[in-house]
Amino acid sequence: MKLSQSTASFYVPDRVQEPQDLARITHLGIGAHQDDLEFMAYHGILAGYDSTEKWFGGITCTNGSGSPREGKFVTYSDKEMQAIRRIEQNRAADIGQYAAMIQLDYPSEIVNDPHASGPVSDLVEILKASRPEIIYTHHPMDQDPAHLGVMSTVIRAIRQLSPSEQPQQLIGCETWRGLDWMLDHEKIIMHVGGNPELAEKLNGVYVSQISGGIRYDLATTGRRLANAAILGSSQEENGDQVCFGIDLMPLTKADAPSMTDYIFGFIKRFAVHTKTHLQHIKS
Ligand SMILES: [Zn+2]
User: Fold this and answer.
1) pLDDT tens, position by position, 206-231
2) CA–centroid distance, residue 274 to ligand 1 (Å)
3) What is the pTM of this model?
4) CATH homologous superfamily of domain 9-278?
């Protein structure tokens, strides 16, 4: 497999497979930055953890350039910070027992460029080699441009696959905006309360990102607990935590609606639902 960036890397935590042998991957997360996978694709990580039948694979598309540098990292150069972030991502792959961790090493501006061919062709190669059942990526209402760039790249790559090569599910996941507002029957509900110790370890790997004082690790767990509470899922009995997702598979089909029409359909149905409720309230 030939990827576009000569600095792209493959890492296989258990070293039992050749780095580019990706066939055992059943659940694949594709994120923009180092740390996105652990926050948004934890459902897939959990599925593969301590399993011999299911395996999680991770792809991080950007090189971490321009990352904030706070605390003990304030004197680090951009290059040194990129190296730290790459190490942190591979450490997460070790902890989560990933089948493989692939870092494509693109500058964000390439990932954000809808005309860039490198990221799409890289993903096509990887998807053909891995043939995952489920793919997790960012969702279309996220606020981060690199997240949207990656999501768009994933959709374009899947469109280039034959029907038999396509995944069964493509899930847009929460990172830089939640999906709790969506109508319950339109959400993909992912229960992730099974191994809180693992989540804590994975979320805590990214010391370089939480050293600035924003506790992404605690916020991620808080969001999962809040999502479960909104659903009325008991946290006392089973310690449930929930990630919400949106089905992006229709956008990969030959007769796909436009992204705008598809997403505005969810927003309009939410608006109608809200209006119906408010009409019963006297103001
Ligand atoms: Zn990110």
Assistant:
1) 887 776 778 888 899 999 999 999 88
2) 31
3) 0.95
4) LmbE-like (3.40.50.10320)
